[in-house]
Amino acid sequence: MSADLEEKTDRYERMLADALDAAEPRPPADTHLGRAAADCAEMAESYLADGRHFREADDPVNALASYSYGYGWLDAGVRMGLFEVPEDTELFTT
Q1: CA 36 to centroid of chain Cα atoms
Q2: 3-84 belongs to CATH 3.40.225.10
Q3: Burial of 36 per CB tally in 10 Å (0-12, 13-18, 19+)
Q4: Gyration radius of the chain over CA positions
Q5: For the chain, what are the domain ranges?
Q6: Is the pTM of this model over 0.85?
Q7: Would you put residue 2 in left (φ > 0), alpha (ψ -120 to 50) or beta?
Q8: What residues does 1 pair with on adjacent strands?
Q9: Which residue, 68, 94, 61, is CA-closest to 15?
Q10: pLDDT per residue over 6-27, tens digit each?
């Protein structure tokens, strides 16, 4: 694996894991928007798990794609106001 691909895959895995830790659902869980937030978080978590599976299978390209998709789901949820994130973070495009 090229050093650039390895570094980028490491960085995106860490970024997605950190983003999942930082994002807190805003709407109450028993509302339509609360369920939408849960869906976004579940997709992000699933893509993180998929990426880790691909890394174990020595498939860094699909691992990086999985981390990127997962991050996209979470970032979209933040942009729509489904998640509360710390103001001092550079993890999101708020």
Answers
A1: 15
A2: no
A3: middle
A4: 14
A5: 3-84
A6: yes
A7: beta
A8: none
A9: 68
A10: 999 999 999 999 999 999 999 9
